[in-house]
Structures are given as C-alpha cells and as structure tokens.
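Cross-posted from the bioinformatics board.
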Amino acid sequence: MSATVFASVPAVNVAALKDTTLLNMGIFALFVLVTMVIVFRASRNNKTAADYYAAGRSFTGSQNGTAIAGDYLSAASFLGITGAIAINGYDGFLYSIGFLVAWLVALLLVAELLRNTGKFTMADVLSFRLRQRPVRIAAALSTLAVCFFYLLAQMAGAGSLISLLLGISDWGGQALVIIVVGALMIMYVLIGGMKGTTWVQIIKAVLLICGAAVMTLWVLSIYGFNLSNLLGSAAEAANNPNVLNPGLQYGKSETTKLDFMSLGLALVLGTAALPHVLMRFYTVPTAKEARKSVVWSIWLIGLFYLFTLVLGYGAAALVGADTIKGAPGGVNSAAPLLAFHLGGPLLLGFISAVAFATILAVVAGLTITAAASFAHDIYANVIAKGQADAGTEVKVARRTVVVIGVLAILGGIFANGQNVAFLVALAFAVAASANLPTIVYSLFWRKFTTQGAVWSMYGGLASAIILIAFSPVVSGAKTSMIQGANFAIFPLSNPGIVSIPLAFFLGWLGTVLDKRKEDAAKQAEMEVRSLTGVGAEKAVDH
Amino acid sequence: MGNEAQPADATQSVDFQQVQQTEQFRELRRRHRSFVFPMAVAFLLWYFGYVLLADYAVGFMSTKLWGNINVGLVLGLLQFATTFGITAWYVSYSNRRLDPIAAEIRNEIEGHEFDTHGQPVKGVRQ
C-alpha cells in the first residue's frame, strides 16, 4: 500500500521506505528515552500542588516563552497549516496570521493580570470576586471541553503521521498507534507533572523551530532565495494561478465566505482563552516574567509561521498537491513529504520524530491542564469544599490524567483523518465563546456579576458545541465525522461568528438582570492585585 | 491548601478599596487602560479589515506588485510586522510607564500603609 503512494514522489525509491521506517522508529525511540530521563529528573522535586500544576513557579520568562511556543506550535500548526497552504494556497495562510495576531490579545489584556490574580487554573481568576461554586464548575467544564477538542486534533494528527511513516493505512493499525501515543503521554504527565511537561515542551519547541528553519532555508535555496520564484513554481505545479490569491477554499459561495469570517474571529479571540496556554502563565514567578514569556513566544511563533508559508508553498511546488492528497495521512502529510523530498529518509525521520514529539508534548500539556482543572476546581473546591489536603488533590489529578488519556485515545481514533488545523480551530471557537467574555469582563468590568459569568460561559459553551454538532463537520459533507447521515442544519463549519458575540451578549444581559451585587471589596482587591501584583503567588523554594 | 483563591499572606489586612481610591492607583489604571484599550481596538480593526479584504476583495488582493508577490501577501506579512511592532511598543511602555508605579504601590501595600487595623508603619518606602 505504501509502495503505490510513494511511487509518485520524485527521486524516491520504495526500497528506501523500509529503512525509513526503522530509522523513524529509532529517532523517535531516542527522543522518548531522552525526554523520559529528563522527566524523571525533573519530577524529583514534585511535592506540593504548586509543584505538580505550576512547576513550583520556577521557570524564567524565556524558558516559559519557549514552552508556550512549544504548546502552541502543535501538530496543527506544523502539519495542518503547511498542508492547508500546500493544498488551498493563500487561504491556509490565514491560519498563520490569525494564530499569531491572537497573541496580542493575550499580551495586552490577559497574561499579566491573570498571573497576578490566580494560582493554578483559569477558574481561580474567574471566581476571584464572584461566587466560587457556580463559576468554578462552569469554568472547569469549559476547560474540559476545550481540552477535549484540542486533544482530538492532536490525536488525529498522530494517526495521520503514523499512517504516513509506517504505511499503516488500516483502521486497526492506526488505532493501535493512537493507543501507544496516548499511553506514553499518560506516563509523562503522571511522572513529570508540569515541570517535566514544560521541559519536554522546551526541547520540542527548539527542535521543531530548528527543523522548520532548516527546511525553509533549503526550499528557499532551491529558488535562489527569491520568494516570487517559489510562488511562481507553486502556482505552476498546481496548474492554477489562484493558489496565490485568497478565496480558493473559502471563496466558493457566500456561505463559505461567512465561514472564513467565523474562522478569523475564532482564531484571533481563542488563544487568550485557551486553558492550557493560560495555565502556563502560572509557571513563572512574576507578572513581569509572564509578560516576558508572551513576548518570547510571539517572536518564536511569528518566526515559525513565516516558515510555514515557505514550507506550504514549497510542498505545493516540490511535492505537488495531488501527491499530498493521495498519501496516507492526506493533507497533514505535506510537511513530512516535503522533508522526504529534500533530505531523504534521514530528514523525514527527524521531522517526523519532531512532529511526534510535538503531539506527545502538546497532549501532555493539555492533559495536565484538564486534570488540574478537575482536581483543583471541581474536586478540591466543589466536592471537598476546600477541605481536601494537597496530597489528595494531586492524587485526584493523577487519576484524572488516566481517565482523560483514555478519552483522548478513543476520541482520536474517531477523529482520525480530519485536517488537524481545522479541528484546532474548533477548539479555539469553543474557548473564545465559553471563556474569553468572562475573562475580559471579570478583569475590566466592575459591575460584572456571577449570573453574567454563568450565563456567558454556559451560553457560549453550549451554543458553540451545539452549532458544531449540527454543522457540516459532523454530518452531511464528504469529510464529515459521521458518514452517511445529514443533520447539518447549521451551514458554517466554524461556530465562532454566532457563539462568540452571543456569549458576550449573555455576559452583559446576565449582569444587568442580576439582582445581586458582587462584593465591592473583592472587586477592589482583584483590581489592585491584577495591576500591581501585590500578594501574588511566589516561586516555591526547595 | 485547596480552596483559597486568595492566599494567606501579608496582604490579608489590607483595605483594597482604600488603595483603589488613591490617586496613584487611579493613575496606574488610567495609564494601563489608555494604552491597552485603544491598541486592542486598533489591531483588531486592522486584522478584521484584512480578513474582510481577503474574503470580499479577492480581485484587489490578487493584484500583482512584484513578480508573483501580490497585495494579499504583502498585507499578510504586514500583519506579522504590526504584531511584532505592537509587542515591542507595549514592552517598552510598561517598562517605562507601568512597572515603576506598580512597584511603588506594591511596596506601600506591603509596608502596611493601607492596613484596616493597627498602626500604619511609616518609613517603609525607600
């Protein structure tokens, strides 16, 4: 099965593929070994909840910034965006721009204020001056939902990648691979906690950015470092000059144009509301370091997205859209196929191992966020009513890790084959709808009340998920998750344009209709703390 | 240590409403908001303007400028440039205009100048 696929890749012999498989496995095994050792070493100091969830708040801004870039530059960015540009040309580039510009929302409005007022999770901030129970439950549920969608995307990416590398195209084989990835991830998180996970992110971010840089320079050198030549060659290979223009994917009809707006909105407003990104701001000792982390990550992420532009068009020009679409793994295989074309099995092995590492690391980061949210917000604060000791809380968190891991594995098996950038965009839409309005209101609007927060979070979460369920993503289209059924009564693939404004509106409505007023002293305390950083959680000494 | 969103620390006895009313804190809040709000509005407008152009002005975006480089690509790359620019601007603004005054207020609070009970401790400020 792999032979037929690779036959169309130029200058590649099929016999080399067997060696490639072994090489890939070797490089991947090496990475797992090295990171496991690091995780073991990092875990020796995991004593308290602050150690387990927030790595003892001991990372520097630049370390954390690199780790944020690692979290953010998931398989979706690398495999998904490169594939989207290779196939859909300019429209794929919008992902890069939206994903990057979104960081300004995080930098200007959220990161430092959040670091100053919270402790471990997003719910700490949201419930600071509102009533703990309802707000924490809502925040924890939306955290779990966002993490679940994001996990789906990563696991689907793992399936695509493996099917390409090992030529496994049968359902059972890919499912087995997803199970192995999931099991490895559970081990990382159980052993390493946030510290181990962060180190894995840092290593992986460096490898990924270096790998992408090498490939970018390589592609550019083929075209004499002339971007115009590369674009010309991509248009020629695609036999369609429109790959350089907007509208190839989203310009087909008024509905798809609206979908494009919806995607743009979800991308730019989603980042600052992603729970696993927000949680990273707690791993640094001060708000100033939180700011530094965001600045670092903006530079690294921006640089990387510039690379994806070259890699995407490079894959279109050198590998060809038809070869990419025909390969096992489909759209998501553009970057690995480009690596194979450029550097043969060795570069393919390296790039694939990095992409694997990316998936493992991001999945680990998501899992620890979801586990922290369950253990800290739901178990410790709601079920045990604040009476649980830290040891029990961490124990609950570890058990949650296993449960989430199993759910992610099952979900990943079903989401296998979808474009991962697209699935991630859904996670962004859910985050932007459920979390962002409440984060912004509670930081900046003095009169905001518990009822407003609860209406906005549940309204945003429910509308986003219901609209996705009745969208062409789930049924009624060729690429839908459920084939052969059609209950897609909502025409857009991304719900953001409806659910995000709705959540903002509900937050306002719930507040103005609320008869109860919130404690003014708490509001004052939150505002003073958020801007000055007084009394913020400090680093843990060992 | 499960529940507290607010840790037990030296700030427990602070009257934050009093701090909130001080001229110094209002100045900090004014400086913060007068930078981040207009800036957020500006970059969001610029971003959505770009998305609208890519969506509904395909002909304009496809205009070739140099070789195969078209308006759409240049505007897209300008989005990168403005993102980097605003980031650098914000960092320099907070270092100059926000951090010093925030540190001052923090020192005063930690020096118990705003405690609700007991004697204010004077002379803590450097």
